[in-house]
Amino acid sequence: MRRAHDVGGMEGFGPLTPDSGEYGFHADFERRMFGITMCALGKGLVSSVDEFRWGVEQLAPEEYFASNYYERWISPIERALFDRGQLGPGELTRRAQEIAAGASVPRLDEPEWSDGFVGFVRTAGSFGQPADATARYKPGDRIRLKDVDPPVHTRLPTYARGKVGVIERVHGRNILPDVRAVKQGDVWEHTYLIVFDAQAVFGERAEAGQQLTLDVWESYIESLEA
Amino acid sequence: MGHGHDHDHDHDHDDVSLRVKALESLLVERGYLATDAVDKLAEAYEHDVGPMNGARVVARAWSDPAFKARLLEDGSKAIAELGYGGFEGGHVIVCENSDDLHNVVVCTLCSCYPWSVLGLPPTWYKEPTYRARVVVEPRTVIGEFGYAVPADKAIRVWDSSAEVRYLVLPQRPAGTEGLSEDELAALVTRDSMIGVGLPLEPARA
To answer: Which of B146, B128, B126, B161 is nearest to B191 (CA)?
Structure first.
């Protein structure tokens, strides 16, 4: 079912607000939340980036749209603790109240682990595998994407479902997020770069001559088209 | 509410900041967080990993045709020659702008972004307005950033929906003959590598 994060092509938004070239963080809570999330992945509290994204996607739409980007990261970590029986009802709120009343945040330094982990974050290579002979499609193939409505996490945006495009590249093999997000194992599939005529996706709303590309897992593809 | 979502729906900064501190405190107690790792990651992504890395890649590509060929053949491998890699940079494809084609990058489902060369994404890149609109009306959206893409230039929008991250290689500005790689890098803006702008012109650098 479509959730708040799946905004590609949604109408009604206003103009963009450019900035002056920023990167990094805007507030101390953003700085902390970034590292908290990386540690939650590194320490195995959250099993994969897919589980993490699915956690963000389960925010109620009104909460999703009202939240700061890093604020949206709180919920998946809370959920992971709760799912492991490590967070009781009301516990986070109580702790926040204690901190508001002057309690300090405890510190735990683990230099060896931290140096190794930060090094890994900053140098890790691809998590994918090269393409092999089992790839079902090849560059130049015209394909139709599935017109499905999955109940859980997927990386097939609503706007692309049922649409026809052309495969331009085989990227390699990657783990299917739809299954890993709900901790049902690692299913490896080929991923492909698909090119669409934007008007074939959005109709006359799209600007003429515009191309749109999308990366898809093989099981998102319904069929070869003539 | 369930799932421990027992906070109220007040989104002011103080409230969010307290909840993040509460979360950090609980995670330390349960062994899921090393404080010094959080500190070091913040430091790295605030100072060392940012668009200045991508600017060096672009400046090298403008100066060294053999490097540019390798960059277009295998983005992440060529980028690693300059020492940049890590999360959200393991499989990078470089999209070259030309007289006929302008490229622009988005992630409609979240905010996938090539951290290794651009750092963490800007606010507007992460917000629904950009993600919703740029796939449908890129010319208008790019115009709002101050660049009118010429009418005879096609636009390709790249929605980063899987594991590949995309970096735009802007066209080298006119009047930059004879500039050093450092001088060229100073012209390369973050926006020009996302595709919502152009590099600076030498006089304006």
So the answer is: B146
Q: Supply the DSSP symbol for A56.
A: H
- ipTM for the assembly: 0.97
Q: How far apart are CA A116 and CA A193, in angstroms?
A: 34
What CATH code is carried by the domain that includes residue A45? 1.10.472.20
> Could you tell me the CATH number of the domain that includes residue A177?
2.30.30.50
Chain-chain contact of A8 with B135 (C-beta, under 8 angstroms): yes
Contact B11 A66 (CB under 8 A): yes
For domain B50-204, give the fold. Answer: Nitrile Hydratase; Chain A (3.90.330)
pLDDT in tens, A174-188: 999 999 999 999 999
Cβ-Cβ contacts under 8 Å for A187 (sequence gap 6 or more): A175, A176, A179, A180
Nearest by CB to residue B42, choosing from A35, A96, A100, is A35
What's the pLDDT tens digit per position in A156-177? 999 999 999 999 999 999 999 9
Smallest Cβ distance to A105: which of B25, B127, B163?
Answer: B25
